Amino acid sequence: MSLCVGTALAVMRLSRFWFLRIPAKFYVETVRNIPGLFWLLFFYFVFPELLPFGLREKLHGYAYYSVIAGILGLSLDNSAYVSDIVRTGLMAVPRGHVEAAVSTGLNRFQQFRYIILPEAFRIILPPLGTRMIHNFKNTSLCMVITAPELTWATQQVESITFRGLEVTFMATVFYLFVAFTAARIIIRYEKVLKIDVASVRRAGT
Amino acid sequence: MNLFEQFANWKFYILGAYPNGPLGGLFLNVSLAIVSIIIGLIIGIFFGLGRASCRRYIKYPSVLYIENIRSTPLLMIVFWFYFFLPVLGFHLPLFWSAVIPLSIYAGAYQAEIVRAGFLAVPRGQMDAALSTGMSRWQALLFVVMPQAFKMMVPSFVSFFNSQFKNTSVVYIIGIVELTQAGIIVSQRQPDRIYAAYICMALGFWIVCYTMSHFAQRLERKLGILDYESYKPEICREDLLLIPIPKAVKKVLISHK
After folding, report:
1. What is the pLDDT of residues B185-201, one digit of tens each?
2. Which chain B residues have a beta carbon less than 8 Å from that of A172?
3. Domain ranges, residue A112
4. Residue A21, domain CATH
5. What is the C-alpha separation between B192 and B183, in angstroms, rounded?
6. Which residues of B touch A154 (CB under 8 A)?
7. Which of A144, A168, A180 has the CB atom closest to B76's CB atom?
8. What pLDDT was estimated at residue B43?
9. CA distance A2 to A76
């Protein structure tokens, strides 16, 4: 979700129209400068209050609203970072490639779909992967809005069994396992998809 | 609904219950971030240089620390220190039980910054310093370190930003910092819920925004890192102040 929003925002920010550029900049600056925890709390406690009464009652009745609020909050937080990463990737695509795409007769959408975005995503894969792992770690914050995830489950088990040490140890091991595996996979793909950015840039200029 | 009344307790967000109670609010966030970054810097220099070493018995413990901390959520580290130090018989004041996990977390990230900064200093600088008759300690202190720190400054400022945002996490152990202050107000006075959340957002936003602009300006001013020629080495032995054992020296020389 944040990947889509982030990419859209990045394209908006590089647009030549100010009415696209400025809202995107505003969004990114606002979201990036406020912690993710705030957005989680905001979506859980304040967002339903802003909705009309009938809808609010429905949301309060819905058992998994905490999960939805968690998803919304995290993707809002993440999308701003992703958009910045994607923006640097788009800027790193050499101008010559875009011009080549134009000269082969691709239209604006096709340029993005077939030339610019694939290249940009190959360049930004390492920071994007880091961001994804970071986001995975941030999911532990969903505990504060009682979304039933690993940290929350840990606290529940601890409050029943009073075996905090063992439980927290297990939770840490789970987190480590997932993060390490993700990191390995990303490093592998990096090697497969690696572009020598410096050489690309030299060729571009 | 009076607008001024909504924001009447703005002091609570900035200072917490300060004159009548412990310091809190935004001020606490900032001080948590600063203290944890200073302690984290010490940890970071230690482990960062350790990771830059070519010797396995120095390198692997630091890699273990850095990678483990970096792939654990901060919340988990906070829990470890808050709930399980008392089990082992240690009792810390609340402030320190927030600072210690934060600085351990910061230490792992700063170790990476330190390593990148030190490895980016060209090897020739160290050799030149040594050939002028400086000791290794002097060369490190007066030649390598200033250059390395100059390169690290932008990443430190942006790291301060993310660390400052991370301090919002420790509200979970009951410290009355900005997030907790906002939650307290919004629960005691439900009619002020919007004001509370606006104050929270504004507090974080102002600090982070100024810092990130400061960082941008600093980067432009210092703009020294030439990314094209930036090819850091994997490990450097000369950065460590620990004397190199003879056995290791032999191996290093034979490699050359």
Report:
1. 888 877 777 888 888 88
2. 72, 76, 80
3. 2-204
4. 1.10.3720.10
5. 10
6. 79
7. A168
8. 92
9. 7
Does the ipTM exceed 0.95? no
Predicted confidence (pLDDT) per residue in B84-122, tens digit:
777 777 777 888 888 889 999 999 999 988 888 888 887
Tell me the shortest Cα–Cα distance from A108 to chain B, in angstroms: 31
Q: How far apart are CA B140 and CA B188, in angstroms?
A: 56
Q: Name the residue ranges covered by the structural domains of chain B.
A: 11-255
Amino acid at B160: F
The verdict on B227 touching A (C-beta cutoff 8 Å) is yes
With residue B223 as reference, give the H or E element that holds it: none
CB of A46 within 8 Å of any CB in chain B? Answer: yes
Residue-wise pLDDT for B30-63, tens only, equals: 888 899 999 999 999 889 888 888 788 888 888 8
Binary contact (B72, A137; C-beta < 8 A): yes
Stated as kind and residue range, the H or E segment containing A35 is: none
Q: What is the mean pLDDT of chain B?
A: 80
Residue B256 has pLDDT above 50, yes or no: no
Angle CA B166–B171–B173, to nearest 5: 120
Q: Could you write out the DSSP letters of every residue in B172-214?
A: GGT--BHHHHHHHHHHH-GGGHHHHHHHHHHHHHHHHHHHHHH
Alpha helices in chain B (DSSP H): 3-6, 10-15, 25-52, 56-70, 74-88, 94-120, 123-131, 136-138, 145-166, 178-188, 193-222, 246-255
Tens digits of per-residue pLDDT, A7-48? 666 565 555 555 567 777 778 888 888 888 888 888 888 877
Domains held by chain A: number:
1
Count chain A–chain B contacts defined by CB atoms under 8 A: 98
Higher-confidence position of B96 and B255 = B96
Residue B47, SS3? helix
Nearest CB to B204; choose among A35, A165, A179: A35
With CA atoms as reference, report the closest residue to B174 among B28, B18, B20: B28
B79 at A interface, C-beta within 8 A: yes
B209: number of Cβ within 10 Å: 16
Distances in Å between the Cα of B206 and the Cα atoms of A67, B9, B57, B105, B203 are 29, 18, 45, 24, 6
Q: How many CB atoms lie within 10 A of CB B28?
A: 25
Q: Do B59 and B235 contact (CB within 8 A), yes or no?
A: yes
Residues 32-71 of B with CB under 8 A from A: 67-68, 71
| Fold held by B11-255 | MetI-like fold (1.10.3720)
Distance from CA of A178 to the nearest CA of B (A): 9
Which of chain B's residues have a Cβ under 8 Å away from the Cβ of A36? 165
Please check whether residue A4 touches B, CB under 8 A: no
